[in-house]
Amino acid sequence: MNRGNFLVHLMIAVVLVALAAVVGQIGRWRSMLKVQDTTPKKATKVAPVKVAELDGRPELLVRFKPNTPLAKIKQIAAANNDRVEDEIESVNGLISIDDLDDADVTGVVRQYQSMPDVEYAEANFQIALDDSVDRNSRPAAFAPNPVGAPNDPLFSDQWALNNTGQNGGTANAHIDALKAWAKTQGSAEVVVAVLDTGVDYTHKDLAENMWIRPANLPEYADDELGTIDDLHGFDANANAGDPMDDNGHGTHCAGIIGAEGNNGEGISGINWNVKIMPLKFLGRGGFGDVKDAIESINYAIERKKAGVNLRVINASWGSTQRSKALEDAIKAASDAGILFVAAAGNSSTDNDRRAHYPSNYDLPNVLSVAALDRNDKLASFSNYGAKTVHVAAPGREITSTWLGDQYREASGTSMAAPQVAGIAALILANEPKLSMAKLRERIMKSADPIDTLTGKVAVGGRLNAAKALGE
Amino acid sequence: MGFDRDSATEAAKRDLARRLGVSEGEVSVSGVTSRDFPDMSLGAPVGDEASAMMIATGWEIDLKANGKAYEYRADKYQLRAKGFEGKNYLVKG
C-alpha cells in the first residue's frame, strides 16, 4: 500500500472508530468479528423487572476454558463493553461479568456461550430463603429443664433437641441432644459457616460462639475486591467485612447450630461451643444472587486454605434454577473438604422429579435436608425425594435466636438444615480428624428409621445426634 | 421503606392501571387477604429468578379492571404481579 492510500484508509478508519464509539457499539462489533458470533445482542425491550440488572450487580457468570489468561478475559469483556467484576479464585476460569450496556441478559449469555474460549455462561439469578417464619410465634414455654439439660430458660421449648411430648408432640421425636451432650457439647475449634442473610453477631446468646478473624490471619484480600477487613466474616452482598444480619433468618439458623449452651440465657444450640462464621449474601428481603453465593463460598474456601478450620457450610436457601457456576463452587468446597448442608425446599414437591438447588447437586459434599414436625411427620411444606433428599430433621416450630437479642419460632427446611450442620460440627468436635466423606456417611447412617419417611428421603429416617456420636 | 396492607394495595392498583393503560379509578379492589406464601418470591417467581422457598406472610390483593380479575402479592418487602398475561412481575422489591 502506498503512503497516500494508507493515509486515506487511516482517515476512514478514524472516522468509523469515532462513529462507532459514539453509538457505544464498537466493542460489540469488534467482539462479533473476533468470535464470529452470529447472535448479536438485540435491543432490549424494557420489561418491568430485569432480575439480574440490580444496580451494577454482575449480570453474568462465565466460566472460561482452563488456563485462559485473566488479561485475555478482561480483553474479551472490554471488547463487549463489559467489565470483569470479579474472578472466583476457587473455580478456575469462573468470572462474574457486569454488562455495561445493560442489554438483554439472555442475548449476552448466548453471545458468551458462542465464544471459543468459554466453557459455559449463565445469567446471575436471585436466590431466596427456604424458611417459613411464623411472626406470630407463641410465647416460649418456661418449664423446669430435665436432668443433664442446659440451664437455658427456653430449652423446654426446644422440642427438636429434647422432645418430651411437650405442646402436643411425640416423646423422643427429636435428635436426642441430651444423650449426645454426654459425649461432647461442641468445640470452639470447629468453624461452621452460615451462608445466609448474615448473623447478628452481637446477640447475647451468640456473641461468645461467633468466629472472629484471628489476629495472626491477615485481612481478606481479593484481586478484584481489594482488601476487606473480615473481622466478623464476609458480606458478599456489599463486598464488605460486616456480615450483620438485617433480616433475622441467618441469626435464626446460627442459633440452632450454636447458640451458647448452659449460659442461663435463651436457648441452647446443638453445639454449646462452636465458632460460627457469617457469610452474608442475602439482603434484607431474603434475596440474593448466585454470584454473591459463589463469592461467599470462594471466601470460605480461601479462609480454609489460610488455616481456618472451616468444616461445614449451612445453606438454608434455594431455588429451582440450576447454576453450573454455583455447582462448580460447591464442588470446589467439596475438594477443600467442606460439607455443604442444604435445605431441600418448601414446595411440598418431590425433588426427584422437580429439582431444587443447591440441594439437588449430585456432589460428594452435599447433604439435602427435609423438615419434620414434632411428631416425626414430614412437615406439610417440606420437599422430599427418595434419591435426592438425604435426611430429615426437625424443621417446624423451631425456637431460635432473632435480631435484637430476641427469640422466635420459625418453620421451614431452613430450620432443618442447621440441625444437620450442627450435628456435623458436634461429630467433628468429638473426632476432629474425620474426613468430610466419613462425616457425611456417619450422619446418614445414624438416622433413626421412620416408616413414613421410607421412599421420602434416602435414609428413610430422622437425624439422631447421639447415634452419630456413637452413643 | 416497606409496604403495609394499604400501601401495597394502592401500589398494586397504580401498577395495574399503568399496565392496562387505564385510570386508577377503573381498577377496583375485589379483596385483600392475609396469607402465607410458599417462598420469598411469594409464589410468583419472575423469569429466571431463583425464587425463595420461604413461606412468607403477606397479602393477596385481588383486583378487577375491564371485567377481568388480576392478582398481586405483597409482603413488607415487595409487591409482585402474579400471572399478568401469563407472566409474573416484581413491581417493587
Characterise this structure.
The complex is a heterodimer of chains A (471) and B (93). Chain A has 471 residues and is an alpha/beta fold. Chain A has two domains: 23-124, no CATH class; 129-468, Rossmann fold, CATH 3.40.50.200. Chain A has helices at 3-23, 26-35, 70-79, 105-113, 177-181, 249-258, 290-305, 324-335, 413-430, 436-445, 465-468; strands at 60-64, 82-87, 94-99, 118-123, 126-129, 131-133, 186-196, 220-222, 226-228, 234-235, 273-280, 287-289, 310-315, 317-318, 339-343, 366-372, 391-394, 398-402, 406-412, 448-449, 461-462. In chain A, a hairpin with a 6-residue loop joins β2 (82-87) and β3. In chain A, α6 runs parallel beside α9 (413-430) and α7 (290-305) runs parallel beside α8. The longest helix of chain A has 21 residues, at 3-23. Chain B is of the alpha+beta class and 93 residues long. Chain B has one domain. Chain B is built from one helix and five strands.
Task: Give the tags.
heterodimer; A: alpha/beta; seven-stranded parallel β-sheet; four-stranded antiparallel β-sheet; 11 helices; B: 93 residues; alpha+beta; five-stranded antiparallel β-sheet; 1 helix
Summarize the structure.
The complex is a heterodimer of chains A (471) and B (93). With 471 residues, chain A is α/β, with parallel strands linked by helices.
Relative helix content of chain A: 25-40%
Major sheet summary line of chain A: 7 strands, parallel
Assign the CATH topology of the largest domain in chain A.
Answer: Rossmann fold
**Overall pLDDT score of chain B:** 89
Shape of chain A: globular
| Order of SSEs of chain B | HEEEEE
Supply the number of structural domains of chain B. 1
Radius of gyration of chain A: 25 Å
SS class of chain B: alpha+beta
**Fraction in beta strands of chain B:** 35-45%
Alpha plus pi helix count of chain A:
11
Structural class label of chain A: alpha/beta
Tally of structural domains of chain A: 2
CATH superfamily membership of the largest domain in chain A: Peptidase S8/S53 domain
Give the termini distance of chain B in whole angstroms.
Answer: 10 Å
Strand order of the largest sheet of chain B: 1-2-3-4-5
